[in-house]
Amino acid sequence: MxxxxxxxxxxxxxxxxADPVADALEAERLGFDFVSANDHPHxxxxxxxxxxxxxxxxxxxxxxxxxxxxxxxxxxxxAVVAKMAVSLQDLSGGRLILGVGxxxxxxxxxxxxxxxxxxxxxxxxxxxxxxxxxxxxxEAGYTHEGASYTVRDASIAPRPTHPIPIWTGTYGPRGxxxxxxxxxxxxxxxxxxxxxxxxxxxDRILRAAAEAGRASEEISCVYNLE
Length: 226
Description:
The protein is of the alpha/beta class and 226 residues long. The protein contains seven helices and ten strands. It has helices at residues 20-30, 50-60, 78-91, 106-111, 119-138, 173-182, 195-211; strands spanning 7-9, 34-37, 65-68, 71-72, 96-101, 142-145, 150-154, 166-168, 185-186, 220-221. Strand 9, helix 7 (195-211) and strand 10 form a beta-alpha-beta unit. The longest helix has 20 residues, at 119-138. The radius of gyration is 17 Å and the shape is globular.
């Protein structure tokens, strides 16, 4: 039987009166499985930085999982993200879902000095990031020579004591195949994966998973309706 996961979007708004912790506590009380928030650090509208927000929410809640939906790879070095994730996973008692993506805002990526990036370069970076993060979690002295990111004889300590699922927000053929090959979950947004297309996109993920020798049950498929 397929497990049903229910999540709630947390606004990253830093406007007066916004209270993401109160929203997360209510979601926890109501029995939601996780809360998630998006990653759009660039702009003039006051917002909280995603990772800081998730850490604050995790510290104030007890059981609900926290998910990045999704962390834009171009904004942060993947090796540092691997370390960040282990810290939040340990401090939260195993409640992190690490969502990662190639970066949706071309304007924001360029403004922060990490672009411009073509769609191919974004997926190259996402693949490098996923391999580096998993590699650093799994072994000491890890090396990866990638198209976008490289680590050499790199180690982090501690390494995860609880599995940290990696979900992606991908939409194109190559990104969907990458999710099937390396990801633990797929969390597309309604506007970019409408119902008439979502099934076909999911099928591409599951075909890639089968080609990689993985079972379809290894990949959670979660629809973001925000």
